[in-house]
Amino acid sequence: MDIFAKLQNIVTPLRISNDPAELYCYSSDASYIKGTPDYVVMPSTTAEVSEIVKLAQKHHIPIVARGAGTGLAGGAVPLCGGIVLDMSRMNRIIDIDIRNLQVLVEPGLIHADLNRALEPHGFFFPPDPGSSEMCTLGGLIANRGSGMRSVKYGTVTDYVLDLEVVMPDGAVIRTGGRVMKSASGYDLTALMIGSEGTLGIITGARLKIHPLPEARAAVLAHFNELEAAGRTVSAIMEKGIVPSACELMDSTTIKAVNTYDANLNIPDCEAMLLIEVDGAPCSVESGAARVAECCRELGAFDVTIAYSEPEMKELWAARRLAGAAVTRLNPGKTRVYIGEDIAVPLSAIPEMLREIRNISDRHGLNIMTYGHAGDGNLHTGMAIDTLDEEQWEVLEKTADDIHLAALRLNGTVSGEHGIGSARGMYMIKEHGGALDVMIAIKQALDPHNIMNPQKVGLE
Ligand SMILES: Cc1cc2nc3c(=O)[nH]c(=O)nc-3n(C[C@H](O)[C@H](O)[C@H](O)COP(=O)(O)OP(=O)(O)OC[C@H]3O[C@@H](n4cnc5c(N)ncnc54)[C@H](O)[C@@H]3O)c2cc1C
What we know:
34% of the residues lie in helices and 19% in strands. The chain has 15 helices and 19 strands. It has helices at 3-8, 20-25, 46-58, 111-118, 137-142, 150-153, 188-192, 226-238, 251-260, 281-297, 309-321, 349-363, 389-408, 427-431, 433-445, and strands at 16-17, 39-41, 63-66, 83-86, 93-97, 102-105, 123-124, 160-166, 172-174, 201-208, 210-211, 215-223, 245-250, 271-279, 301-306, 334-335, 368-372, 377-381, 383-384. The protein has a 6-stranded antiparallel sheet with strand order 15-12-14-13-17-18, sandwiched between helices. It is globular. The two termini are 28 Å apart.
């Protein structure tokens, strides 16, 4: 049977390929995981997606949805070959409905494009991944992603009202509606969010939007003790302040960032916290002052408050460079995203930071720690010579220790990047019997396991 010819009956020839050079471009995402598809198809309508899925179902061909391929866990990598559905052509904003505080979009829309379209209306879509300029909303929803502002505004879960989904048999369903709340039936929207393309293909999303805050202020604080920075995060929350961002950088990250851009001139210290507050101008001013006071009480020095956009941009500059600076401490080595996304309860942040230090010393591997400390989500950055097997072994052991430490502290192996095929081995440890329920759901909806097989630790 000629699958390629059958696919050509569904989409025009320019939107399908089995050229090895093209397939190679779809054989990885931003992680280290690899797998080559047999076909790449770029649908432009829900009807096309449904027909492609029906074909895949009939012939039991694996089918993997791909947004922009910025995932860090191998989620969009076709481990078993088959069809990669490149969703990037379905990228329209169908409706901006300010009266009902919602938008209707296609899944291939780039995250930042939505916020650019909302800004003139005085609104925004709050979940804000660092990959905003690259990633798609479909990928963000499928990975249950978030970003710096989830400490105040929540994750993508809090903003999805309704999804259009092509199920594994090709049927098109709607999981929710236009209403702001509903107590009607099982919450299939929640089931699809974070399902990483293993239960269906998202072809449309109705999303809640939020008014842009009137004012913002940022507080930058330096600490001579790493754990004091960790303690400050929960102390701020205990005072009843809800920051709109609360980012941490440890001394290794600070060194790397200073190496990347010496003009930043960050004082040599153990940790740095960048805390942002937003809202009405008067509450922002008092909130920023209280945050600064709290930082000083817990031992911070060089505490700066910025109210204007240019000043805030300057304070944020170092944090924005953190990801890119990883290799600066390890010239000639490559950053590998592994063990990079744990999250722990706020009270466990100081202990997790200490654990990461110990793990780094034990394995003799530089680990940069930075991230969204305000919601307990810590990113680690490690770089190795990827051609050196021994270094791979050390890296894998280091990542394993980081994951296990997070689980010991009642945390999770992924705060926002997802499980994909990088973290499946921890699912039983993290979820116990609940993993059996996930497997049962997967088997009931996708008995032939065509939807993104070998992901999320489901098999
Ligand atoms: C520099 C950098 C910074 C990052 N910062 C953040 C961050 O701050 N927060 C964060 O959450 N993530 C972050 N990420 C990770 C990544 O950008 C997110 O996971 C993003 O949401 C993935 O979107 P994507 O379009 O690239 O999806 P892809 O990587 O293409 O796919 C991700 C998963 O979603 C599935 N999928 C994609 N589209 C669909 C669809 N339409 N229907 C069903 N399943 C689908 C895929 O099968 C796969 O399992 C970062 C990545 C990089 C490289």
